[in-house]
Design brief:
Length: about 270
């Protein structure tokens, strides 16, 4: 499989897992428009690649992502001054397109969160399927302190932590650590940074034991519960369940259970 060439991302495939490292360490991996576009290109390139079962998002040099790149904002300001009236809107909306794509990615998305997890980085954390955080990582939505708003991030924060907590976090710009992020439900586990790699390996081993197509269908089912009427979701789920039972995965999973062995996808 051919992956896109990237300047701001380091891509490494290990078996059925693609590791994506945000790689702008000089800016604590601040999210530039180039990085946004490169993430979208990678997500789109692998969406139909069933051999890739999980994507691991991480940042270089001990930071996940410190938010948006101030240079892009300056560039948009210059374009706006030159008469490009939608410069700020288009820049902001492009990030929203990327985070929506990440949210809907068919693979399991695992976020490993260290150091700064701010703004756009916070948003990415909120669309991960599994989030592991260093207990001393620093989370926050700093936008209002800069005179702007968390425009593309807010809906995903609300979905992650609920309206009450999202209002508090967005309207105070509060900073908090990984332990508090776990309490709020932003991340699933908070642990010492030195233990992240070991825990990541364990999570990937768990994902390896899940049937790839069943995982894809299950992720679609879970996401649809937020977007479709319940009866429509349940009707589609019943049809998907029937298809899964009759599939090669369903047959192999049943046979492996009877024979008391691992199914082939878990080997």
């Amino acid at each position: 499989m051919s992956l896109p060439t990237t300047e701001t991302l380091v891509l490494r495939q290990e078996g059925p897992f693609l590791h994506i490292t945000l790689n702008r360490p000089e800016s604590r991996n601040a999210m530039s428009l180039t990085m946004v576009n490169e993430l979208m290109a990678v997500f789109q390139a692998i969406a139909d690649q069933t051999a890739i079962r999980a994507v691991v998002l991480r940042g270089a040099n001990g930071h996940f992502c410190a938010g948006g790149d101030i240079k892009d904002m300056a560039g948009a300001r210059a374009r706006a001054a030159s008469g490009e009236s939608n410069a700020f809107r288009d820049l902001n909306r492009r990030f929203g397109e990327m985070i929506t794509l990440a949210n809907q990615q068919p693979q399991v998305v695992v976020a490993v969160l260290e150091g700064a997890v701010l703004g756009g980085g916070f948003g990415l954390a909120c669309v991960s399927d599994v989030a592991l955080a260093a207990d001393n990582a620093q989370f926050g939505l700093p936008e209002t302190g800069l005179g702007v708003i968390p425009a593309q991030i807010a809906p995903f924060v609300v979905q992650r932590v609920g309206l009450t907590q999202a209002r508090r976090l967005a309207l105070t710009g509060a900073r908090f650590n990984g332990s508090e992020a776990q309490r709020l439900g932003i991340v699933h586990e908070s642990l010492p940074a030195s233990e992240l790699d070991t825990r990541l390996d364990a999570v990937l081993a768990q994902i390896r034991r899940c049937a790839p197509q069943a995982n894809r269908a299950t992720k679609t089912l879970v996401l649809n519960t937020l977007a479709q009427p319940l009866e429509q979701v349940l009707d589609a789920a019943a049809a998907d369940f029937a298809a899964a039972v009759a599939s090669e995965e369903g047959a192999e999973g049943t046979l492996a259970f009877v024979q008391k062995r691992l199914p082939h996808w878990a080997e």
